[in-house]
Specification:
By secondary structure, this protein is an alpha/beta fold. It has a single domain, classed as SPOUT methyltransferase, trefoil knot domain (Alpha/beta knot), CATH 3.40.1280. Helix content is 35%, strand content 22%. The strands form two sheets. The chain has a six-stranded parallel β-sheet, with helices on both faces. Helix 1 runs parallel beside helix 2 and helix 1 packs parallel to helix 6. It is globular, with a radius of gyration of 16 Å. The structure holds S-adenosylmethionine. S-adenosylmethionine (SAM) binds next to strand 4 and helix 6.
């Protein structure tokens, strides 16, 4: 079962804030991979450059099927967010202090505005809470940007993103009850 996506015309980008190259390589890579695997189509690593993280995400995107329209790093977060809003995009900040996801997900899903989803690392500056159209919590316990992002995207796409068709994949999985089957795709 594979769904094609409506995402060609709507941007759903993930902006990673507060990445510390000496500590967060693995988790930021996971943020990028979850963004891709759960239906987002852009990844922005804000304020820092970390080639290793970006290369890992690009490699997966090339091998397992093109999903991202854009992968960028070193982008000034505040400029980027303001520009996004000027272009009529909406900004969703995931934070445990926000409103419960189930109260707002329908209106977020129903609007056809481009969506920028922000996840932090350590403390997120207050200005982000002000700029966000929605501060959204996934439960009221501190957990992880990876978990918060996965659950938010799964709710946004109503679970269909798990079956999206990833174009131009070099390899794909043939699902099996036991064992592993991966096949190469003709290019
Ligand atoms: N004090 C932070 C906060 O404002 O949510 C927790 C820091 S947590 C290590 C890193 C990121 O995970 C946060 O910036 C947020 O994006 C995400 N996060 C953690 N728990 C969350 C929750 N319950 N709901 C939504 N996002 C969460």
């Amino acid at each position: 079962m594979a769904y094609s996506t409506n995402i060609k015309w709507q941007k759903v980008y993930v902006l990673r804030l507060g990445h510390r190259p000496n500590r967060d390589k693995r988790i930021t890579t996971h943020v990028g991979l979850v963004a891709r695997a759960f239906g987002a189509n852009g990844f922005i690593l804000a304020n820092v450059v970390d080639d290793k993280v970006i290369e890992s995400i690009k490699k997966v995107d090339e091998q397992w099927g093109k999903r991202f329209i854009e992968i960028r790093q070193g982008v000034n977060a505040l400029k980027y967010i303001n520009e996004w809003k000027r272009n009529n995009g909406e900004v969703i900040h995931l934070t445990m202090y926000g409103v419960p996801v189930d109260l707002v997900i329908d209106s977020i899903r129903q609007s056809n505005r481009n969506k920028l989803i922000i996840v932090g690392a350590e403390k997120v500056p207050g200005i982000i809470y002000e700029l966000a159209d929605y501060n959204v919590s996934i439960g009221f316990q501190p957990h992880s940007e990876v978990a918060a992002l996965a659950i938010f995207l799964d709710k946004l796409f109503s679970g269909k993103e798990l079956y999206y068709d990833y174009m131009e994949a070099r390899i794909r999985i043939s699902p099996k009850q036991k064992g592993k089957r991966v096949y190469k795709c003709p290019q």
